[in-house]
Amino acid sequence: MPLFNWSDKYSVGVYMFDTQHKRLVDLINDLHDAMRAAKGREVLGDTLKGLLDYTRMHFADEERQMTTFSYPDYSAHKVEHERLVAKVVELKGKHDAGDNTITIETMNFLKDWLINHILVTDKKYGQFFKDRGIV
Ligand SMILES: [Fe+2]
Ligand SMILES: [Fe+2]
Fold first, then answer.
1. What is the Å distance from ligand 2's center to 98 Cα?
2. Rounded to the nearest whole angstrom, what is the distance from the C-alpha of residue 104 to the centroid of ligand 1?
3. Domains of the chain as residue ranges with CATH
């Protein structure tokens, strides 16, 4: 059972970023499934790495687009990205060090963070990019 399902209310109005957000939702669901199914450390480690890599790529794409168009909220937006990456790096570091306590609280944190970031922070750039012909 997925931890959460994509719905159109999460759309930021930019096709590429919606597609990337859907993939992030899938990756968080995969991590949740791996945790719930008590999959081996290796599977969990690989899933975490996949989430971290994809998150970094997505954030870099958003930041590149914001820089290109001199998005006014760029700095604050980037700080949010950096905080989440630091959190996932910490999580992966703990896991790599033998800590097996990726919990439902952690999963809920990731889910809530992503939902909140998309609905509040990412949504803000929707109109801005639309006005510049990026949809
Ligand atoms: Fe973002
Ligand atoms: Fe995003």
1. 30
2. 23
3. 15-131 (1.20.120.50)
